[in-house]
């Protein structure tokens, strides 16, 4: 233990690690808004998948309206779902995280779309891996 008044020698490795840790945290803080924007844009794009752009104006207010609205397009009917299904048909037995990586989405999005494909009877889950129904 150093005596009072005696200068201490700092551990250069500890300083280096602290500096790098601070740099990484600062960069993560910078990137957080961009990641949030990416996620918002991805959700918007996914919501637009399956929307027929040639349908013209909205049917809201027409005399055929029953007052109830559907919940939107069926689960598993968007472009990302089609990509996931095509990938699993090409390479059966992938995990959700690998499917997500290959189609360019966050893993939690894959965890949302794969059960929809399973409900439609297009894929099935065995253990933690997904298989197309025709190859399982």
TrEMBL record:
Organism, as annotated: freshwater metagenome
Domain HTH iclR-type, chain residue ranges per copy: 85-125
MF annotations from Gene Ontology: DNA binding
Positions with biased composition (Low complexity): 53-74
Region (Disordered): 46-83
Alphabetical list of SUPFAM superfamilies matching this protein: Winged helix' DNA-binding domain
Gene Ontology annotations of biological process type: regulation of DNA-templated transcription
UniProt-recorded name of the protein: Unannotated protein
InterPro entries: Tscrpt_reg_IclR_N, WH-like_DNA-bd_sf, WH_DNA-bd_sf
